[in-house]
Amino acid sequence: MAIANLLLATLAGSAAATKLYITSYAPPNATVGAVTTLELSPGLGQGALKSVAANNECGSAPTWLDDTLGNDVIFCVDEGFQTPNASINTLKINADGSLKSIAKVDTIQGPVSTQFFNKNKALALAHYGGSAISTFTVSGKGTFTPLQNFTFVAKGPRPEQEASHVHEAIIDPTGQYLLFPDLGADVVRVYCIDPATSLIAAHDSLQSKPGYGPRHAVFRKTGGKTYLYVIHELGNKIIAYKVEYLESGGLGFKEVQEIGLYGSQETPAGTKAAEISVSPDHRFIVASNRNATVFSVDNPDPKNSTKIPSDSLVTFAPKNDGTLEFVQLAPSGGSFPRHFKFNKDGSLIAVGNQNTFTVDVFTRNVKSGKLGARVASALIGAPVTNIVWDE
Ligand SMILES: *[C@@H]1O[C@H](CO)[C@@H](O)[C@H](O)[C@H]1NC(C)=O
Ligand SMILES: *[C@@H]1O[C@H](CO)[C@@H](O)[C@H](O)[C@H]1NC(C)=O
Ligand SMILES: *[C@@H]1O[C@H](CO)[C@@H](O)[C@H](O)[C@H]1NC(C)=O
Ligand SMILES: *[C@@H]1O[C@H](CO)[C@@H](O)[C@H](O)[C@H]1NC(C)=O
Ligand SMILES: *[C@@H]1O[C@H](CO)[C@@H](O)[C@H](O)[C@H]1NC(C)=O
After folding, report:
1. Where does the signal sequence lie (predicted)?
2. What is the pTM of this model?
3. So what's the architecture of 2-390 in CATH?
């Protein structure tokens, strides 16, 4: 046996499997969605990613997961398309990886993202369907009490912008501000946080370009400067902004670059950008492209030799002046990579392909930032929306 194989075999025998939690919407033949616990065995390869438990207590449209408060609870948001209310659900993680609901609170319609703030004493939700922002105070292990809500009336030039659609809640690196990209209104909303009360107050928004549809964003600090990278679902561009903390309060944004998501290739018609994330070592930015199958990959069913079309993930290297340099366009492993997550050391990336109902795991070279081979895949049987690694 070659030494590498011996090493893998030893690891497979001794090291524990890594768990991942994923959310999925109700599949076409069901009315409830799921939070599924997956185990990734350290040997990787065929059959290495397996479902070990499924929880159906997060309604019809589980859309986002958050494990900020620690290892034994995870929060799942139900977007609640089919019910009058949506909800945040507190799920206890049992020793065997199964989940059990221990609290639930109704919310305004259509939450799609959560962000804890003010030293985890409060939680903000972005409501896509409900055109709103809401906040909650947090007590104990995750009991939420409504604090504030803001509803917006807005419209943009594109058909998808018939109303305000708040798509994400993110916190700035100082913990003083919450930002909310609003896809329908072509703005990134900015709020400051009162540390004494957790109340938030609006400042001037970052104005996006008309019809661009800001969806998600990430901050990155370098050389004492702060940059914000906003991914636009409709414009299919990342815009990099230098962020200024204004003395009068609020944030200023200066555009430093606008860049496409396909490298030297033409941006395909119909594509829809989705997720953006900074690598654990802060050296790379990765984003996902949906509805433009520029690659083909092996079938998720190992018995089926027909290749399937694949969307893509794009990697950039940020420079000290905040601009991005294209590194690689790589397959996502299926269709509609709505979400993806790095493992702790950035050597693997797990992708949720919403329309092929799969979670696909790729190796990643932490030095070059490039994605490598697909090393595990699980057929979930439902539209995958979010992934959290338990490490
Ligand atoms: C839905 O269909 C899948 C196969 O596509 C099957 O595995 C699953 O059991 C079905 N679920 C229900 C509730 O019928
Ligand atoms: C739940 O839905 C009802 C009916 O639409 C609405 O009146 C109520 O405000 C909602 N509750 C929350 C917490 O949004
Ligand atoms: C939203 O806030 C208003 C007060 O501004 C309050 O009356 C209402 O109950 C809140 N709605 C929810 C769903 O918390
Ligand atoms: C996907 O792209 C095609 C064009 O290639 C477009 O007709 C279709 O509406 C797009 N689908 C979605 C869900 O955006
Ligand atoms: C194999 O995969 C292709 C592409 O997804 C699909 O159209 C076909 O029905 C599959 N064949 C079988 C026997 O499952």
Report:
1. 1-17
2. 0.94
3. 7 Propeller (2.130)
